[in-house]
Amino acid sequence: MSNSKRLIINCGASRVTAAYVSPQGNGFQIDKLVYERLQYDYSNDDAWIGAVGDALQTLARTHKLSGKATIIIPGNQVLTKTIRIANVDESKRAQVIAFEAQQNIPYPLHEVVWDSQVVGDDGVETEVLFIACKSNTIDDICRSVASAGLVVEAISAATVLDFNALQFAYPGQTEDVLLINVGARSTNLLFCNGDEFFVRNIALGGNTLTQNIADSIGKPFAQAQEVKHKFFGDDSSYSDDDSGGKLLTTCADSFIRRMSQEITRSIVNYRRQKQGNAPKRILLNGRGALLTGLAEKLSESQKIKVEYFDPLQGVTLDADISIPMEELRLQVGEIIGEAVRKSLPDSAGVNLLPDDIQSEMAFSAKKPFLYAAAILFALAPWPAYVAYKQVSAGYEEVALATQAEVAPIQGRKFAIQENAEKAKALGDSIKRVEGLLNSKTNWIQFFAELQESLTTAEDVWLDDLKVIRAVSKDGKPSYEVVVMGQMLVRDQVEGGTAIDEEVLTRRINGLQSSFEESEFVVSSVGPTLTWTRLREGLPVLPFSINLVIDPAKPL
Description:
Elements: E1 6-11, E2 15-24, E3 27-37, H1 48-63, E4 67-73, E5 79-86, H2 90-102, E6 112-121, E7 125-134, H3 135-147, E8 150-157, H4 158-169, E9 177-182, E10 187-193, E11 196-202, H5 206-217, H6 221-232, H7 243-274, E12 281-285, H8 294-302, E13 305-308, E14 315-317, H9 325-329, H10 333-339, H11 355-379, H12 382-391, H13 396-457, E15 460-471, E16 477-488, H14 491-494, H15 501-516, E17 521-529, H16 532-535, E18 540-549
Parallel strand pairs: 1-4, 3-14, 4-8, 9-12, 12-13
Antiparallel strand pairs: 1-2, 2-3, 5-7, 6-7, 9-10, 10-11, 15-16, 16-18, 17-18
């Protein structure tokens, strides 16, 4: 494959779809598109990753897939949360997002891999879409891809890729649109108004209908899935007046009613959070949208025009792709959204590939050049060595005789020198390691005490920490640590009341006193407070405190 081609693999809940895409003019071309249905018990969440691994190996072996691949994981495998944070510098945004996210997700932050996408900024607050996936799931995906002989280049979340596909397929779109992507395990709702969007993922998909059918006819999930495909695929022995057919139709109607209720609830939530307008048009996407009557009944219940989304506008297909166009449109939206992500000016997307793996991949890309440089470096002395051998051939006998006499003495001399150098080096190393160990231990304990003080104070964070080292006139060392941070002021700004500088000063002084309780701090200077931002309406109070460190416990 050409270097300009990308391999994008969409690991859905019911199938794995792989496509090679390449740029073509203002659009791009799908050069190859293949898929493999997942074989597992859809009612068992833990079986999904194993089925994905089997499907990847089958696709790689059957269709000769190789090289780097961008992996897309479905919405039911990620946590999507919209949070609001104070407007801070982009370099410090990740820290604030991590703090706010930890208060809003149901498990510890260190157990997930996460990334974020900014969706709005009014100058005071920034609206961020927080997307996370459990670390063990990401590790399993990486192992499955590696077992198939591929290299993970990035891991993207399907929940935001519909926004890119919508921008690409309908450029200049300004009216309020709701794009509904109905998958097997979940449904992704994308509210879009120009370059702004809002995402909600609901646990309602094609498997929900299958489970309803299984409960109604008293059959296992796998058999109910087969019955559903036959009946709604016009390949069934049930007639219109058959009791079994009526039962399946009732299940479908119940599923559509639940879907409509969730859509209504999401529209209300969207209008309340974003202060936006109700959508003027609904676009359906995903293979679950093929359910008979879904578009018509949603249009009737929502009083909105409902159409099927066509993400293939501007996309060229290779002649060897034989998948029916109606089915193809409903299963390539996420792949197209990822393919155009780098070419759109206001695209959305995250990368859930852990930083250590990204660094390892970057180093691996440099290995061929490093190998070549090492070989050239090793060969560089060879011509000089050959010339030296030719010149010194006549003196070898004399040199050998001299060396025979000098060798014992030289050997003892060199041994003494080497041992002395080793002893000195070992002594220096021991001193450095001892100093480093003491300093490292002190820093860890000092940071822990700072973190405890910040947690107790609440609504406070540090932006910068600086160490000032000096030597007094009597030759003794002195240490100061300057901590600079900000306090979030809630009542004075949000409540509209006047700024009570005395109360805020007491809070900062309390934080300073808490810092002084550290066994490393003997005193402190400050605090220095900056009231400018509060008086301008920004609810933060910058501060600076100088902590004098005990010389007996240096950092």
